[in-house]
UniProtKB/TrEMBL annotation:
CDD domains: crotonase-like. The keyword GTP-binding does not apply. The keyword Transit peptide applies. Keywords: Fatty acid metabolism, Lipid metabolism, Mitochondrion, Transit peptide. Belongs to the enoyl-CoA hydratase/isomerase family. NCBIfam families: PRK08139.1. May play a role in fatty acid biosynthesis and insulin sensitivity. One of its GO terms (biological process) is fatty acid metabolic process. It is found in: Mitochondrion. Its main location: mitochondrion. Transmembrane segments: none annotated. One of its GO terms (cellular component) is mitochondrion. This is Enoyl-CoA hydratase domain-containing protein 3, mitochondrial.
Length: 247
């Protein structure tokens, strides 16, 4: 299976999520996503800032409310799209991620960050509270940690972000590529259809109460066994051989 790399590449503007950047990110995420070969998507960035969030020039009063709505709507669409994609999405963070940039990291399935990375929601300091980033943040972090970030705008270090569950791993900067590739290669060894089923189910069950979640996942396990790759994996395990996935 293959890995798609999406690189935020406007370091001069600190990789701000302008309307154009969000549209192109959406396009790159959706591009040929049903391809049999695609197994994992990695989002990284050029320059010292992973992503600074919305382009504030687009949010000044010179632009009308319709434009402002459009910016926030497509942003929400991209953030939720990441979790709806049939393949895992990994954020590879090397630098500062703020506001909607921090939301982007929180919205990815897995996030690997270098030790120098930092995470903040500083909107409150400029009079624009990070209410949409708070959706992703409040679902990734303990409430009191999220609210301290939201009320103060102070950044979390990579180590703190790891401790509170905003990211999956912290590594030295020179090991970031290697560590991300390691996870990515591991994912590529699995069946695409099984990963897609597992990812979709995970996000469905996580918001449900315990009984409902077990009802849903019990049915999914039964369905999983009817899939060709489900049976192939079990047979291969019993026969002590490598499975041959259908795609």
């Amino acid at each position: 299976g293959s890995c798609r790399n999406i690189i935020l590449n406007n370091p001069r503007k600190r990789n701000a999520l302008s309307l154009a950047m969000l549209q192109s990110l959406r396009e790159d995420l959706l591009h040929d996503v049903k391809s049999k070969d695609l197994r994992v998507i990695v989002i990284s960035a050029e320059g010292p800032v992973f992503c600074s969030g919305h382009d504030l020039k687009e949010l000044s009063s010179e632009d009308d409310v319709k434009h402002h709505s459009q910016v926030f709507e497509i942003c929400a669409e991209v953030m939720t799209l990441i979790q709806k994609l049939p393949v895992p999405v990994i954020a590879k963070v090397n630098g500062l991620a703020t506001a909607a940039g921090c939301q982007l990291v929180a919205s990815c399935d897995i996030a690997v960050a270098s030790e120098k990375s930092q995470f903040a929601t500083p909107g409150v300091n400029i009079g624009l509270f990070c209410s949409t980033p708070a959706v992703a943040l409040g679902r990734s972090l303990p409430r009191k940690v999220a609210l301290e970030m939201l009320f103060t705008g102070e950044p979390l270090s990579a180590q703190e972000a790891l401790m509170h569950g905003l990211i999956s791993k912290v590594v030295p900067e020179d090991k970031l590529e290697e560590e991300t590739m390691k996870i990515s290669h591991k994912i590529c060894e699995s069946s695409k259809s099984i990963l897609a089923l597992g990812k979709a189910t995970f996000y469905r069950q996580i918001t449900q109460d315990l009984d409902t979640a077990y009802k849903l996942t019990t049915q999914v396990m039964v369905d999983n066994l009817t899939l060709r790759d489900g049976q192939e994996g079990i047979e291969a395990f019993i026969q002590k051989r490598k499975p041959v996935w259908s795609h």
